[in-house]
């Protein structure tokens, strides 16, 4: 996969990957999130703002149909209407932080949960599955998969495997994430070539402990206050 540099959207160009435009606003939000001095309160507040932007971008990849309406002026507006069944699925724990903003935008959306944790004692940080509860008709739905970080991609790959086992079509999965890196994106797309990824930022690399650089540290610990 080629990765030509593009200062507007970051370094990662692949038709399956949407990177939010690198506006000054987005950069300012990232500056707060990544600062190690940022308080937990601000970390939560600004991650909610970033997640909201991410969700609005992700919804653009869902199917819409034409819909014409009449305005109060008696004239027509040729519009669009969302036309599919949707579910959100969070990869716990950190993905739970994205459920609230998803509910703010998609009224009464069904939410499934998959608990996957990296084994921090293994050199490859292998992702382990502990729990899964999904809407019974998940196989009929488009799935917004939620996790703020893609490092090795192992957690996302495991979650997509679980969704596939429950009958979800890979092409109906949109994976939303705040910070990714080339290695993780490449691993996810190799294992799950039909999935679409939407990310707010593609970072440079992983360190020896498979943490994203420059990254923001451990998202779950900073969000839930377990540092
Ligand atoms: C973090 C993060 C992702 C995963 C990314 O979760 O939220 O799920 O690591 O790493 P990977 O791409 O290498 O799998 P973690 O397992 O630390 O658990 P947490 O959500 O409880 O913080
Ligand atoms: N999980 C995180 O929260 N941060 C990383 O950099 C890697 C995995």
What's this entry about, in short?
The chain is of the alpha/beta class and 227 residues long.
Structure description:
By secondary structure, the protein is of the alpha/beta class. The chain has one domain (17-224): Rossmann fold, CATH 3.40.50. Helices cover 29% and strands 28% of the residues. It is built from six helices and eleven strands. Strands 1-9-8-7-4-5-6 form a seven-stranded mixed beta sheet, with helices on both faces. A two-stranded antiparallel sheet has the order 2-3. The chain has a two-stranded antiparallel sheet with strand order 10-11. A hairpin with a 5-residue loop joins strand 10 and strand 11 (212-213). Helix 1 crosses helix 2 (40-59) and helix 2 (40-59) packs across helix 3 (99-105). 35% of the residues are buried. It binds 1-O-pyrophosphono-5-O-phosphono-alpha-D-ribofuranose and uracil (URA). Uracil is lined by residues 149, 151, 211-212, 215, 218-220. Its cofactor is Mg(2+). It comes from Capsaspora owczarzaki (strain ATCC 30864). This is uracil phosphoribosyltransferase.
